[in-house]
Write a structure and sequence with these properties.
alpha+beta, six-stranded antiparallel sheet, 29% strand, three-stranded antiparallel sheet, 285 residues, single chain
Length: 285
């Protein structure tokens, strides 16, 4: 059973619609639908929230931990004991042997199911041999929201050689900026929100992508990456951003520089078969 199928089964067990589960998770019904279709996987915080909602550990939700077996019904146990007590030694031994064999077969099937799990958490392992972000030159020393020049970020990604059959199919940029003071807007009204945020999907060509921020005003950018096996197949969405851009400011709050962080070893939920491709992987179930 895939993670998406398990989420769907647990959701239906609580008699929740996709929309109702989305409301509890703080996301859209479409996001729930993509989870259940195994088109995307939940972020770590959403996995934690799902495990709490369903009364499971994260390992049980992902299938890496075997759930506790339900206790046997007392009446069935008493009947079994009475039946065994009335049998001869030979029949008793045979019955026990058959029971043990049945349990072993069940455990083998269960273990096989566990071994076929889709995803395991991976962290601290370089999955990109090249992860570079460069940006265009712009004049600094401007106050947030007061920039006048466009800033262009260029991203280059190349998976490690062991992942030669995988390709970067998407970059998702989460952009956060400051709202200008409301009193500077002729129609502005007081608001509790001092920041805004938007998400932008970046087209990728041969591991390259670009993002342009018009009239850059000190926005922060966080970029996550999606890999897919060539020819279609399983998708890997990384839980940590591969690239982050943060403005550096002085005591007056003016933007004086830009700090780019490149992370070639982002945490991710990785298909189990990955572990035959990369030796000595460190992961947390």
């Amino acid at each position: 059973m895939t993670l998406g199928q398990r989420i769907q089964e647990l959701r239906k067990g609580l008699d929740l619609s996709q929309e109702e589960l989305g409301e509890k998770m703080g996301i859209s019904r479409q996001a729930i639908s993509k989870w259940e279709a195994d088109q995307t996987i939940p972020d770590l915080d959403k996995l934690i929230a799902l495990s709490r909602l369903f009364g499971l550990t994260i390992g049980q939700l992902l299938g890496v931990e075997q759930p506790l077996p339900p206790p046997a019904a007392p009446k069935s146990s008493r009947r079994l004991r009475l039946l065994l007590a009335g049998m001869g030694t030979l029949v008793l031994a045979l019955t026990v042997a058959v029971a043990v064999l049945g349990v072993q077969v069940w455990n083998m099937k269960r273990q096989s199911s566990i071994d076929d799990l889709l995803y395991i958490y991976l962290s601290g392992q370089d999955l990109f041999q090249r992860a570079e972000c460069t940006y265009s030159n712009i004049a600094m020393d401007f106050l947030p929201t007061k920039g006048t020049e466009d800033l262009t970020l260029d991203f280059t990604l190349e998976p490690v050689k062991q992942l030669k059959d995988w390709t970067v199919i998407g970059l998702t940029a989460e952009i956060t900026g400051e709202n200008p003071p409301w009193w500077l807007d002729p129609e502005g009204q007081p608001t509790d929100s001092t920041t805004w945020q938007r998400t932008e999907e970046l087209p990728v060509s041969r591991g390259h992508a670009s993002l342009t921020l018009p009239s850059y005003g000190g926005e922060s950018v966080s970029v996550r990456v999606t890999l897919q096996k060539k020819g279609g197949g399983q998708i890997i969405e990384f839980l940590d951003p591969v690239f982050t851009l943060s403005p550096e400011t002085d005591a007056s709050g003016a933007v004086t520089g830009l700090l780019v962080t490149e992370n070639a070893a982002p945490a991710a939920a990785i298909p189990r078969f990955f572990f035959s491709l990369l030796p000595d992987l460190q992961f947390e179930p």
